[in-house]
Design a protein that fits this description.
Oligomer: single chain
Order of helices and strands: HHHHHHHHHHHHHHHHHHH
Structural class: mainly alpha
Helix content: over 70%
Largest sheet: none
Number of domains: 1
Radius of gyration: 22 Å
Number of strands: 0
Number of helices: 19
Amino acid sequence: MEGQVSDMQAKENKMGVLPVKKLIITMSLPMMVSMLVQALYNVVDSIYVARLSEEALTSVTIAFPLQNLMIAVGSGTGVGINALLSRSLGEKRFDRSDGAANNGLFLTVCNYLAFLLIGLFATGPFVRTQTQTPILIEYSSVYLRIVCCCSVGLFFQMTFERLLQSTGKTLYSMISQVAGAVINIILDPILIFGLLGCPKMGVAGAAVATVIGQICAAVIGGILNVRKNTEIHLSLRDAAAPKADIIKEIYFVGVPSILMISIGSVMTYLMNLILRTFSETAIAVFGVYFRLQSFFFMPVFGLNNGLIPVLAYNYGARKKKRIDEALRFSIILAMSVMAVGTVLLEIFPAQLMQLFNASEEMIVIGVPALRIICTSFVVAGACIIMGSIFQAFSMSFYSLVVSVGRQLVVLIPVAFLLSRLGNIHLVWIAFPVAEIVSFMLSLYFFRKLYRKKVVPLEET
């Protein structure tokens, strides 16, 4: 039996033959660790910024929607590349997998140029739609201008990581992402507070540390792809000659993913406007929540990223049992991670808020906020894993519908209506309400897609 598996492995990528639970762990654990480190960076970055002032922390929260839009474009494009590349490998169409990789590089350059223009011309007007406080306008505009104009590292980091993930080399993807995050964490206090002879840059220092970390991660990711990712062949000549049919297929999956993540930008922007009617401190609390919840959501997204190529590959290889086992195991794992998050935020909300130098007003607003929102974490974990099958099977439109339903159709209207009652604590109830709706939609689409795509598969 072991000899038979060895022969199969010689002919087929590990995603088709390795025991499923072991495969999910080996594929996802590096990405879960790297996502956890990324979450740690987000928290540490905000802790340092909060030491400057509450206004500095609020300004980073105001900047978040546009910063998240960059992540949406880079990540969504990467999802499209990932799905096409992994499926092509499963189908043994190696020319197509190389085409996905090289066209992905072309799209990465295009994405950067778009946000370079946004950084040069749109950051100030964007910030002024959320606040008229001069110090917040100054801090937010400077921060956004740096991260947008220097976002070349962000986009190439994401693309190179997706290429490594697509072929199952998630350990190398982790090395790239962790290296960038660690460099960022080290540079944060140096550049923010002016240590080791560097000038004190304040909020701008946090932005500079971020882009330097991203550029370093991109360089490392590029080197690892060239030297270690032997299943694809990167070529500047091929990247400079884009193919419309491949780009169309990448964005058939990628655009819904971009829109789905971008909805998060719209949601945070609108939520900032709702919270501003209470106080700018409420906006700061919302920012703190986002940083804290990333400790639990980011590892689950890492699990999701590891699961997508496994599902896509085994769908291409028509291996139903492996798809079923991967889904069951991943849902249990995701819900367990989110349950830990719920327990911690219920028991230690005040202590967690204090990490951000929270004022008394922040504590009064933040403790109920954390306790109310975290009640929906376990359901959210199940929704994320169910959504992975939509992306893996090129049906990201379902994910888009779920995301729109959760964040725009339910969350924002419910939060707005509750805000009219004049009690900010009621606003947070909108989050668990929206998550319940998201779960019902996810389950409906999951069952529909499973019956259509997975049930008819025959074992090969």
